[in-house]
Every structure is written in C-alpha cells, then in structure tokens.
Design a protein that fits this description.
Blueprint (H helix, E strand, L loop, with lengths): L4 H15 L9 E5 L6 H9 L6 E7 L10 E5 L4 E5 L4 E5 L8 E7 L6 H12 L2 E2 L2 E2 L4 E7 L11 H5 L1 E5 L4 H10 L4 H11 L36 H11 L6 H12 L1 H13 L8 H6 L10 H17 L12 H11 L5 H14 L1 H6 L1 H4 L4
Parallel strand pairs: 1-9, 1-10, 2-6, 6-9
Antiparallel strand pairs: 3-4, 4-5, 7-8
Helix pairs in contact: 1-2, 5-6, 6-11, 7-8, 8-9, 11-13
Length: 375
C-alpha cells in the first residue's frame, strides 16, 4: 500500500468505526508496517485529524533508556486525560482531551519492540478495552506501527498480531511531494525527487552508472543487510532541506551534512543534479510577479518542477481569505497564472494551478475565468 493521506483516511475511518462500536465482536486495529523514516507517524497524524471534527492525537514510542520506562496508555477518568502507566508509576500524560473531544487516536509506534509482558498489557487494552478493570474512554481508538521484520527488537506476540490488520506500506513520492510543497521543503529537493521518481524523465535505474546500491531508490532506500549508515527516506530528505538552507554552514559543511543524512552516494546524485540540471539560474519570485511575460522559463523538467514548487509554496504561505491582511493580491495571482501558462508542459501547468488552489482557495477566486480551464 502506498503510504498517503487518502489511503490512511479510508483505513482509519473504517477501523475507528469498528473500534467504537460496542456491537462489533472483533475490532479492526490497523498496523502500519514500513521502513524506518517512511513517515508513518506524521502521515498517520495528518490522516487521523481528518477523521472527526475534534481529534486528539498521541503516539507512544517503544524506546527508552531502561526497561522500566516502557509504558502503555490507560485512561484517567478523573481528569479526562490519558496517563502513561509503567510498572507501577506514572511518567506523563497526553494533554488536550476535553468533553468536546470527538476522537482520541493513540498510535502505538514500534509496537513489536515492547517487552512481551507489556505487549500483553496492550492486548488487554485493545481487545477488552479496559486496564486493571477500568474501561477505556469510548472515544479512544488505536493504531499501531512497526518496522519490517529484521530491523531488530522484539517480535510481535501472536495474540496481539492476530488482533491487528497489517498494511505493508511503501513510500509514495507523489504524496510526499504534495506534503513537501505545503511544508516548505527546499524546491531543489522537490525537483530532484520529482525528476527521479515521478516524471517521465526519471532515470530507468537510479543505480545504473553510479555508486548507488543496486536496486536503490533515491527517495526511500532501506536494506537491513546493508551496512550503509545514512540512507534516503522521506524523513531524511526533510532534514537535508534544513541543512541545505542553513545560513551558518559553509558549502563544504552543507555537503557533508547532506551526505550524513541521506548517504554519500545519494548526496552525490542530488548535488550533481543541482550542479548540472539547475546550472541556469531559475527565475525568482520577484521575476515572476514583476515580469511574468519575460521571466525565464527553464527547459529541463526538473528545474521547472522546482520552480513550480517555489510558486506553490509562496501561494500557500499567503492568507486564504480576502480579509486576511496577508491575503494574496489579485495582481499577484494574475502574474503567477500568466507565468504558469508559459510553462512548456501542460501537465506542469495543470499541477501548478491545482496545487495553488488546493493550498490556498483564495487563489482560485481571484482569477476564476482562467482557472476554469484547469478544473
């Protein structure tokens, strides 16, 4: 299954309805299985927040400095919060649960790494919906996540395994690009991932003629038998974006930082992309807004997509209602649309217009006569 918002919303809504129905004999507990750094937690949170009007999301991670710190969540009915209960002591609580809360989503991350006795406690919590005789809040639902077998740690006990529905998750480059545009990931990284993994111009094999591991994927690569340390993943590329835009680091430190985040071979591929495919300076936002009819339109698809990402990020950053003081101005929308219509590839035009409208509805309202052609 591709790990994206649409897929998870559908799975979660089905699962949560069964978990909250007292007449259901067997509740559906989704267990998302995917490589480290895939984004299981962040995408799960985004999807969960779309499942009800008022959602509180919390996650438990089965890692700590000592066995006694492993914990499970149980309800505290006296104050409406979830308390993290370990072997006889409380170590914290999840804030935000009120009478107005519609749904409490608890993600049990790396569930297979809990000791077996804690997994047994989780089984009671999930199956019988009580802990030490205290019933769980009827609004509480569960999601689990773990890495594939072979990544170390304890295995999932069979009774807990039988009460979960496993979804093998793969990276979805297109879904991540949407996320990356909306969250300010550097456009050159977005253009690189789009070029390598999405566009018709992607290389037939990422590893051919390079030092990349055979069968590798520049967006997300993991092999438990590979001794390579840093590897590319959605999480790693987001970290690389922060390093790339650091005002404090020299070019050499940025290079070494990216190598230490996604691996040397993958960093070399990305830096070569920046050097070769983005050698002609793309237009700035000022160029596009002030001179939409003459601003440079790059020829290579990778740079074009990086420019599209830059435009969409700008539109998403503006107010989405006319009364907002930072709302996008009509003349800016006019200029952006004029420039977008000069892009050589109609698919890039359509993508840019739709993404701008998706992330800022005011964009569509400003120039509906032109936008209608792209609906």
């Amino acid at each position: 299954m591709k790990l994206n918002i649409d897929n998870l919303v559908a799975i979660f809504k089905t699962s949560f309805a069964s978990q909250m129905d007292p007449n259901e004999v067997e509740s559906l507990i989704p267990n998302l299985i995917g490589n480290p750094g895939l984004g299981k937690t962040s995408i799960s949170k985004q999807a969960a927040m779309l499942c009800a009007g008022n959602v509180v999301f919390s996650s438990l991670l089965a890692t700590s400095s000592g066995t006694e710190d492993f914990g499970v969540a149980v309800p505290d009915l006296t104050n409406g919060t979830l308390e993290l209960l370990t072997r006889g002591k409380l170590i914290g609580k999840v804030e935000g649960v009120t009478d107005e809360t519609d749904l409490i989503v608890l993600l049990i991350d790396e569930v297979d790494k809990y000791p077996h006795d804690i997994q047994g406690a989780l089984l009671t919590l999930i199956q019988d919906r009580h802990f030490d005789g205290i019933p769980v809040d009827p609004r509480l639902v569960f999601v689990a996540a773990m890495n594939p077998s072979g990544c170390g740690g304890s295995e999932l006990i069979q009774p807990l395994h039988e009460r979960m529905t496993e979804y093998q998750c793969d990276a979805d480059a297109e879904a991540w690009i949407d996320y990356a545009i909306a969250n300010g990931i550097d456009p050159s990284i977005i253009g690189f991932i789009h070029w390598q993994c999405v566009s018709n111009h992607r290389s037939a094999s990422a590893s051919r003629g390079s030092d990349l591991p055979v069968g590798s994927n520049v967006f997300s690569y993991f092999n438990p038998d590979d001794e390579v340390g840093a590897r590319p993943s959605p999480r790693a590329w987001a970290k690389a974006s922060v390093i790339l835009n650091s005002p404090y680091m020299s070019d050499q430190l940025i290079k070494e930082g990216i190598e230490g985040t996604v691996g040397k071979a993958f960093a070399a591929q990305f830096l070569a992309f920046k050097r070769i495919y983005m050698s002609d300076p793309p237009p700035s936002l000022d160029d596009i807004i002030e001179n939409p009819s003459t601003a440079v339109v790059p020829n290579d698809p990778a740079t074009v997509f990086a420019v599209v990402a830059m435009i969409v990020q700008y539109v998403a950053s503006k107010g989405d209602r006319a009364r907002d003081k930072d709302a996008i101005k009509t003349f800016v929308v006019d200029a952006i649309v004029e420039y977008i219509e000069r892009l050589h590839n109609e698919a890039h035009q359509i993508y840019a217009i739709k993404q701008c409208g998706k992330l800022n509805p005011l964009f569509l309202e400003n120039k509906s006569d032109i936008i209608n052609r792209y609906r």
